[in-house]
Design a protein that fits this description.
Layout: H1 3-21, E1 25-34, E2 37-45, H2 52-69, E3 76-81, H3 92-97, E4 102-111, E5 114-124, E6 128-132, E7 138-142, E8 146-151
Length: 155
């Protein structure tokens, strides 16, 4: 297991009792390096939405546990937030919850000179993602070819 994956897994375990006690769901955890800084990000959610107070409560409790356990060697910035309206779909539970929703996909390599597609998420499995395009045709893509999937934002 890579260092990044290990840190994310330990953080998920630390978060579990905090979130359970407050009826909050863990959406995702990521440990990433951006512009020379490491970030440990926890994305939280709940049925009626996440408030700034929820983020603060989880951040304070998690920060105390991270200080106590001290398992991350690097200096990092802790962030706790909602996954947002245009949330990325990374895990199977994200895809399952989003069946019937409009999504945007970005590919690593172009198909017919296009790297971005939008449609209604109709199916997924461990290897593929299927969307219904605007013209009602379906498109099935290998998950390994998809760089990013997120819920579409309609304004």
């Amino acid at each position: 297991m890579a260092k990044r994956e290990e840190y994310e897994a330990i953080t998920e375990r630390l978060l579990a009792p905090i979130l359970e006690a407050n009826n909050i769901e863990l959406y995702d955890v990521e440990y990433v390096k951006e512009v020379g800084n490491w970030y440990l990000r926890a994305y939280i959610d709940k049925e009626d939405g996440i408030s700034i107070d929820d983020c603060e409560l989880v951040s304070r409790a998690l920060s105390d546990l991270l200080d106590e356990k001290d398992f991350i060697d690097d200096a990092y910035i802790l962030e706790v937030s909602s996954p947002g309206l245009g949330r990325q779909l990374k895990k199977d539970k994200h895809f399952a919850r989003s069946i019937g929703e409009e999504v945007e996909l970005k590919l690593y390599k172009a198909i017919d000179k296009k790297k971005e597609f939008a449609g209604i998420l109709t199916a997924f499995d461990k290897d593929t993602i299927t969307i219904e395009l605007e013209d009602e045709n379906t498109m099935t893509l290998n998950r390994s070819d998809v760089a990013m999937v997120r819920l579409a934002l309609d304004f």
